[in-house]
Amino acid sequence: MSPAPPAPAPEPTPSVEVVEPQDDSDDETVKDEHSDDDQPPAFPALSSAQRAGPSSVPRILTDTELMPPPPQPSLASRNPGLSAPKSSGSNLLALPPSTTKPPVRPSSKREKVALAPGYGPLDWAKLKSSGQNLRGVDMLLRVPPSELKKHNKLDDAWTAINGKVYNITRYLPFHPGGEKELMRVAGRDGTKLFMLTHAWVNADFMLDSCMVGFLTSEPL
Ligand code: HEM
Predict the structure, then answer these.
(1) Most ligand 1 atoms within 8 A of CB, residue of 179, 201, 202 to mutate
(2) Number of C-beta neighbours around residue 83 at 10 A
(3) Which has the closest alpha carbon to 110: 50, 197, 171, 168?
(4) What is the Cα–Cα distance from 31 to 28, expressed in whole angstroms?
(5) In this structure, what CATH number is given to the domain that contains residue 141?
(6) What pLDDT, in 10s, does the model give residues 36-75?
(7) Tally of domains in the chain
(8) What DSSP designation does 110 have?
(9) Which residue range(s) make up the domain with 191?
């Protein structure tokens, strides 16, 4: 067995020599042109709270340091059942004030008239499908406003609704709003008034058997 080779001499411990910059100017932004540009910034930042020590770290407040809770509302300050009369003593069980408004009477503009016996909606439906000629004409016409204007009497009333011209003469006593109101559109385009009064009414269906033709512009 050969003797072990002599152990190598221990290397001297490397020491770091801190070299203070010679220039004692405070300006840190001025760099030597040969300095390393890839140097990352210090982390945590030099001004960071983590470096400053535990005293600056926010801590959780104890119960006694917190703001006290608001006082409990006393029963006397509550006031349910405002509508209950004061004399009723305890009003704790009173109903809350109602938000329901009393019904408003419809304006006189929309008054329903009493129809004569035999002139109800069903009677009109029966007459409509009876096969009687309610149009007063034999074929559908092109009706200019000047022609429409001529039919504005109780015994000869035409009106136009949504471009269609109807002979409303026979419908007059059946109209739930009354003859007088219906006559307001006789001899003219009644679309606007009709829609303003009851856009939900299906005039096209109500008056289909009274159709006279189509409203046109005046011939040139
Ligand atoms: C020309 C075609 C018209 C037809 C087919 C017609 C048809 C009707 C119908 C079916 C009702 C009952 C509606 C319901 O109960 O909801 C009604 C009610 C009424 N209509 Fe007419 N109407 C016509 C034109 C007019 C016009 C031009 C007026 C004028 C303002 C008028 C005024 C009224 C009024 C005041 C009522 C009753 C109020 C109501 O029911 O709310 N109608 N009409």
Answers:
(1) 201
(2) 10
(3) 197
(4) 7
(5) 3.10.120.10
(6) 577 777 777 777 777 776 666 678 888 888 888 888 877 6
(7) 1
(8) G
(9) 115-215
State the chain's mean pLDDT as an integer: 81
Report DSSP letters for 172-183, one per residue: GGG-TT-HHHHH
Q: 56: helix, coil or strand?
A: helix
Q: What is the pTM of this model?
A: 0.59
pLDDT tens readout for residues 67-87: 888 888 776 666 655 554 555
Length of the chain (residues) = 220
Instruction: List residues near ligand 1 (CB under 6 A).
Output: 110, 112, 159, 161, 168, 175-177, 181-182, 184-185, 190, 193-194, 197-198, 201, 203, 206-207
Atom of ligand 1 nearest to the CA of 181: 29
Per 3-state DSSP, the chain is made up of helix, strand and coil in percentages (nearest 5) of: 25, 10, 65
User: Considering the domain boundaries, does residue 83 fall inside one?
Assistant: no
ipTM: 0.91
